[in-house]
């Protein structure tokens, strides 16, 4: 038997309980950028997942409360920056509400295809939005990867990844391995 979201056998957990559970679940940090024609937007996300390797598809969620969401959902393409600990400033910039995240022109540029991207980010994936799905007060966005940053095809050692856990930024490195 299939149940819709509105049909529940048991009461749902509260929003505070749900947030508390995920506060203890660390997430890799990414920044999503897009421009649907009215100027660039960016937001910080810990919801990025790889959904398929062949074809290369990733997904992330965006909140209806984010000022960047309408532009991201209205864009044909996005750039997903997978951040290292060295790029925590980009994560903080795009997590700050009420500011012009693209005021400092030295931090960003445009790809040849027109999408805005942060030049400091070594790992990024440009992709085409192929599907969206409403999910409560958010939308799940599926993206087909079209292009990867040149860094991914080189021999450079990857930097320590940036992780968000319990409302704090963390770096994962050899010392954190168990």
UniProtKB/TrEMBL annotation:
Pfam families membership: Flavin_Reduct
Flavin reductase like domain location: 22-171
Q: Where would one find the signal peptide in this protein?
A: none
EC annotation from Swiss-Prot or TrEMBL? 1.5.1.-
Q: Provide the protein name.
A: Flavin reductase family protein
SUPFAM superfamilies for this protein: FMN-binding split barrel
Organism, by scientific name, is Arthrobacter ramosus
Q: What class of enzyme is it?
A: oxidoreductase
